[in-house]
Design the sequence.
C-alpha cells in the first residue's frame, strides 16, 4: 500500500522531541503511537508543527478502539492520494502536495504504481458488480477509473 512508502522528512526532529529512536516511515506503528502521545509539539518550529498537526488531523483522527493502529490512517492516506489524482494532479504533483502539507516524502514512481494498482482493483470490482447485476456500483467504479486514468 502507498502508506508503506511514505516517510517523514522531519523524522529526526520528531526523534529528538520524543527522546527515542523513530523510524522514518510515517505509518509505522511506533511513529503513529508517538504522534498520538503527548509530545510537546510547541518545541517544533512553526512549519514542521503545522505539517505534523495537519497529518494528525487528516489521518489519525478516528474513534476506533485500536487507534492509531487500527488501519484507518493508512486507508485515509490512500484515499487522499486517489482524491488528489481524481482532482487532476499527476503523480509528481501529488508528491509535492504531500511534502508541502504533511512533510511526507514519497517517490513519484511509487505513487504512479499505487494509482495503477488502484485502477486494476477498481476494474475487478466493476467486473464483479456487472456479473452480480449491480450496475450502479459498476458505473461508480468506472467513473473513478476514468478520473484516475485521465
Sequence:
Amino acid at each position: 500500500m502507498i502508506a508503506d512508502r511514505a516517510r517523514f522528512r522531519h523524522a529526526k526532529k520528531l526523534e529528538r522531541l520524543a527522546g527515542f529512536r523513530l523510524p522514518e516511515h510515517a505509518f509505522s506503528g511506533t511513529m503513529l503511537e508517538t504522534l498520538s502521545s503527548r509530545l510537546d509539539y510547541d518545541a517544533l518550529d512553526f512549519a514542521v508543527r503545522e505539517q505534523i498537526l495537519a497529518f494528525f488531523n487528516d489521518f489519525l483522527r478516528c474513534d476506533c478502539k485500536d487507534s492509531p493502529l487500527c488501519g484507518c490512517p493508512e486507508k485515509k492516506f490512500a484515499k487522499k492520494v486517489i482524491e488528489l489524482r481524481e482532482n487532476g494532479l499527476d503523480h509528481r504533483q501529488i508528491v509535492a502536495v504531500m511534502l508541502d502539507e504533511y512533510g511526507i516524502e514519497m517517490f513519484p514512481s511509487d505513487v504512479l504504481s499505487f494509482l495503477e494498482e488502484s485502477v486494476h482493483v477498481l476494474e475487478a470490482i466493476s467486473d464483479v458488480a456487472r456479473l452480480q447485476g449491480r450496475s450502479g456500483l459498476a458505473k461508480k467504479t468506472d467513473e473513478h477509473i476514468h478520473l484516475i486514468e485521465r
